[in-house]
Amino acid sequence: xxxxxxxxxxxxxxxxxxxxxxxxxxxxxxxxxxxxxxxxxxxxxxxxxxxxxxxxxxxxxxxxxxxxxxxxxxxxxxxxxxxxxxxxxxxxxxxxxxxxxxxxxxxxxxxxxxxxxxxxxxxxxxxxxxxxxxxxxxxxxxxxxxxxxxxxxxxxxxxxxxxxxxxxxxxxxxxxxxxxxxxxxxxxxxxxxxxxxxxxxxxxxxxxxxxxxxxxxxxxxxxxxxxxxxxxxxxxxxxxxxxxxxxxxxxxxxxxxxxxxxxxxxxxxxxxxxxxxxxxxxxxxxxxxxxxxxxxxxxxxxxxxxxxxxxxxxxx
Length: 316
Hints:
single chain; about 325 residues; alpha/beta; five-stranded parallel sheet; four-stranded parallel sheet; 13 strands; about 15% helix
């Protein structure tokens, strides 16, 4: 597909989108272009799914080149900024930048809610020159496989930042998200408050960070300064919340008080094996005031399947 044809197709989609906004009672801006489209869509009175708008950003991206790989126009090479979208639906960005080796940085601004299945599944998978990624406004990532494999295999990646993220509840939410990123040094989750879903059923929230940092050889520490709850409901043996992150040596969780699973699933595996096969894990650090609460949690006696050489500290 030529660039001219791609642009014409995109313009047609935008025009159709504004028609859909108008017929559904939304507010049309004076300038009806792509930059104003998210605001127009959000003005529709009912909180419908994107498919009812007659268009979505997903469709626009897909139809620009009609394949699994988005081809960047000449001059749009290294820095990607996505803005104006506050929530995304299922599969919205899944595979959209797969194997794009021009990208060096990604910033997804304004997005607050990523609560649908696979909305960023493999979105930036195998972008081997991508160095940094940031979701500065994201608050919730509660869909199944929300960021599953999202940044996997990005060997140039050094940091990822989620500075406002508070909830990561979905099954396999960050599973394999950064695996094989051999130069990754930091993954920031400074406001993350809850991992897993206390209201979920069996086998529904037990692998949120499973393999997330597999083979990230420079990532030896994790810090969750605001984390209060880890819920791990069900799951087979060896599939815990942080399972198989084999290079992590130390984890700091000063505010954590709850490591559990919902009462309906006490008979199944889950919270007692959240660190299974974290073979390098030698230190778990908690706030000293929370010692009695931590010692009362499911799996404390076995260190939640951390290695026997792992030491639990109440020193924060």
